[in-house]
Design a protein that fits this description.
By secondary structure, this protein is of the alpha/beta class. It has helices spanning about 55-65, 85-90, 110, 115-120, 125-135, 140-145, 155-165, 185-200, 210-220, 235-240, 245-255, 255-265, 290-300, 320-325, 345-350, 355-360, and strands at about 15-25, 30-40, 45-50, 70-75, 80, 95, 170-175, 205-210, 220-225, 230-235, 270-275, 285, 305-310, 315-320. It holds the Pfam family ABC_tran.
């Protein structure tokens, strides 16, 4: 591997991971993982979530051979990692942990340059690469590069951890509760930045979290685990929220999963074209990159039953409150609702639109509401 590709985003691609019937029994007899199979596609961000002690970190640590499985095998890019040199393997796999694990007596720049240095890149190359990565994670190399870890905030240290992991230009990034040490506001910002970063670098990422909102926000797919690493469901966030595979999953994702689903359902799926008769000047507007959650927030703030959806500031259609509360395609409304008061369903029952209001806004050309699920 080259330590200094043309740009941080250019990368060396991403590799798929296949976990085949993997188990881990620790020497004291604890069965951390019984028999787990799953695959993560190249460039996909898979989230492992589940109650404390269910084996999430053990699974993650088996992926870079910090923990050796007791059974089964793990393929990276089709090759059994048991046949790889663990040190060489770990240099291809970035690992970001909760308290980051920066070297306290090294500057930020030196920390970020760790792996390129180990690979023998020259000093100028290492510095350029480190600075590029610091910029990429939103830190100013001139201001922060020569500081020591204790001279940064928790959120800044977390960014350095991500930059250091990316400096190796890994084919896989493993992240164990990467944002949990920072306060909720910083966490939200880091998650947003991280999503932008991932859109640029497209690594295969396996991320462990306790936080269902984080899982829903970041994951392409979410693996919900139970004790002993038992896989309860492995599906995109919208599916886990709208069609939990069991009561256990429904309970785990929470009573407010209906609201969470809105945050991962694209607005444009429920879009109704403009009929030309709407009084769009009086409606709140939301950009078409937004979600149903954004639309609902705008409706509530603007006390409206509809929002105008815009692209580059230009109106392209409307979304109605009833479309937001329509059940996703093919899903019975109250599946597993017995364990939770699904907020969206409750809102549906108690807050149905007046069809005449909708007609007034939609105009005569508008069809029935499109199902909003992606
Ligand atoms: N080195 C070890 N020796 C013995 N048991 C261990 C060891 N590491 C973890 N365990 C046990 O294995 C099980 C799974 O632990 P693991 O850390 O993988 O869970 P987790 O889901 O990541 O938990 P948390 O969310 O609390 O971090 C737990 O019962 C834990 O006590």
């Amino acid at each position: 591997m080259d330590a200094t590709p043309d740009s941080p985003g250019a990368g060396h691609g991403a590799a798929p991971i296949t976990v085949e019937h993997v188990g881990k029994v620790y020497p004291d007899g604890t069965v951390a993982v019984g028999d787990l199979s799953l695959e993560v596609r190249a460039g996909e961000l898979a989230v492992l979530i589940g109650p404390s002690g269910c084996g999430k970190s053990t699974v993650l640590r088996m992926l870079n051979r910090l923990v050796e499985p007791s059974k089964g095998r793990i393929l990276l890019d089709g090759q059994d990692i048991a046949e790889r040199d663990p040190v060489e393997l770990r240099r291809r796999i970035g690992y970001v942990i909760q308290d980051v694990g920066l070297f306290p007596h090294q500057t930020i720049r030196t920390n970020v340059g760790t792996v390129p240095r180990l690979r023998g890149a020259d000093r100028k190359q290492i510095r350029a690469r480190a600075d590029e990565l610091l910029e990429m994670v939103g830190l100013d190399p001139a201001r922060h590069g020569d500081r020591y870890p204790h001279e940064l905030s928790g959120g800044q240290r977390q960014r350095v951890g991500v930059a250091r992991a990316l400096a190796a230009d890994p084919v896989v990034l493993l992240m164990d509760e990467p944002f949990s040490a920072v306060d909720p506001i910083v966490r939200g910002r880091l998650q947003e930045e991280f999503l932008r970063l991932q859109a640029a670098v497209r690594k295969t990422i396996v991320l462990v979290t306790h936080d269902i909102d984080e899982a829903v926000r970041l994951g392409d797919r979410i693996a919900v685990l139970a004790e002993g690493g038992r896989l309860l469901q492995y599906a995109p966030p919208a599916e886990v929220l709208s069609a939990p595979a069991s009561e256990a999953v429904a309970r785990f994702v929470g009573a407010d999963r209906g609201i969470r689903r809105l945050a991962v359902t694209r607005l444009r799926d429920a879009l109704r074209p403009l009929a030309g008769t709407e009084d769009i000047e009086r409606l709140p507007s939301v950009a078409d990159s937004g979600t149903m959650y954004d639309a609902l927030a705008a409706m509530l703030t603007g006390d409206a039953l509809n929002v105008v959806v815009t692209t580059d500031g230009q109106p392209i259609g409307t979304v109605s409150r009833s479309a937001i509360f329509a059940p996703p395609d093919g899903q019975p409304r109250d599946r597993h609702a017995g364990v939770s008061a699904d907020a969206a369903a409750a809102a549906q029952r108690g807050d149905a639109d007046d069809p005449s209001d909708e007609q007034a806004v939609r105009g005569p050309l508008a069809g029935g509401p499109k199902r909003p699920e992606q």
